[in-house]
Amino acid sequence: MSPDGSATLHDYGDAADIRSVREQKAAARAGAGAPPRPLNLYARRAQVYPRKVSGRFRSLKWAALLGLLGLYYVLPWVRWDRGPGAPDQAVLVDLNHERGYFFFIEIWPQEVYYLTGLLVLAAVGLFLATSLAGRVWCGYACPQTVWTDLFMWVERRVEGDRGARIRFDKQPWSAGKIGRKMAKHGAWLVIAFLTGGAWIMYFVDAPTVVRDFFAGAASESVYFFVGLFTATTYLLAGMAREQVCTFMCPWPRFQAAMLDEDSLVVTYNRHRGEPRGPHRKGQAWGETGHCIDCKQCVAVCPTGIDIRDGIQLECIGCGLCVDSCNEIMAKVGLPPNLIAFDTERRMAQRVAKEPLTYRLIRPRTVLYFLMLLGVAGLMVVSLATRDDQGVSVLHDRTLFVQLSSGAIQNSYDLKVLNKARATRHFDIAVEGLPGAGIVLVGRSTRPAIRVTVTAPPDGLGEYRLHLRAPAQSVTSPETKIRFVVTSEDGGTTVRESTFRGPKAANR
Ligand code: SF4
Ligand code: SF4
Questions:
Q1: 272 and 250, same structural domain?
Q2: What is the Å distance from ligand 1's center to 295 Cα?
Q3: What are the tens digits of pLDDT across the range 249-295?
Q4: Bond from prior residue into 36 cis (ω within 30 degrees of 0)
Q5: Residue 140 lies inside a defined structural domain of this protein
Q6: Using a 6 Å cutoff on CB, does residue 320 contact ligand 2?
């Protein structure tokens, strides 16, 4: 507090020096202090120097950061025994062998619809979270936010808090300044390299790729992608930061469609805060609003905006301005939450002095929840009932052949997918064509009612079949038939196909 008893909190810095990005850009466009000149539609990026803050939402952000980064870096090292011949990494997208592994689940290329299901789940989950709590994804869980937060923490450790960094950047270049800048960028590059390296480990066995990488024995694509992800992490989290959220990310553009008057968003309680202005000790609070215009909410904002201007596209909903303002409110002896996560409806109710209500169950939240439940349920049922075998039957391009014996022959390509970890035998039979016999090309010459094929462990057996039927059985140019494929452990797969024959006039 100042000696005259002013409650303006100069111990946080001079509020007059704190300007939101918008104010800085507006001043730059107008050429503040310079003679009038034509309106400039371009303004240089205003550097944001967020101040350190503590409070409930900052703690939540730290918890989210530690949890998510821990998960990201540790997950590739978690092992999962799948038996001999199979990778033992719990989470792995094995592009070389066209398999996806997630603990006990193994996904084949034919089952890529599970990935679609996951993406739909993620999208609907995001819609639900946004309609309930605004941009919580952006503020707490988006990789851009998480890594930017980590990079800012490093920056603060090396260059100091907001005021120190502003002064440091204004200093002329010296050996000390170069050294500290190099330390900061060096630490950023190490984090970026670890991030890029960890990303690659989701696609190749983690211990193997680490050993090969440092021995110079990894593939060129590994070096390329580690370099690429190192560079993008460094540039996006270290340099671009809030510019990604403001100019590159499409999500802020359409997330407004998920919000309504009952969505929790970071809001300034204008009714309580205005008229804003410095407050002197002993002055009655009725004369001024509760906002003392200290601008500490602006100083901590990672995107450099002033939330008192209303909800803005740049606001990522991190809640740090809530923490900052609550610190100020505590110091001046006022109740917290002048800035708060609140809904438009509750703000209006406050003004009207009506009881405050929060509607969790609304048409859109119910719809999103049901969609989430439906897709998740479908995926669980599909996973629980998925077959460990797959069959495809493709009719030959040649419609049919009439043999010298008068029998009609059709040919087919048969593929049997064996998802088990052991070689398995499969019996093939055909229904719907009396007297038909199967010839397994390369294995037999005499037609049989049933033939047996083999498929390798976790692999595909490919066979060519001739299906022969006596001419009198072929009563139609196109007879519907069914291939019945039964594994040695009793699993049955049925595939429908057709058996072609001559038209009646040609028989
Ligand atoms: S809203 Fe709170 S933190 Fe922001 S200027 Fe007003 S009193 Fe300060
Ligand atoms: S205005 Fe507040 S909630 Fe929005 S980004 Fe800035 S600090 Fe976070």
A1: no
A2: 5
A3: 998 888 888 889 999 999 999 999 998 988 877 777 777 899 999 99
A4: no
A5: yes
A6: yes
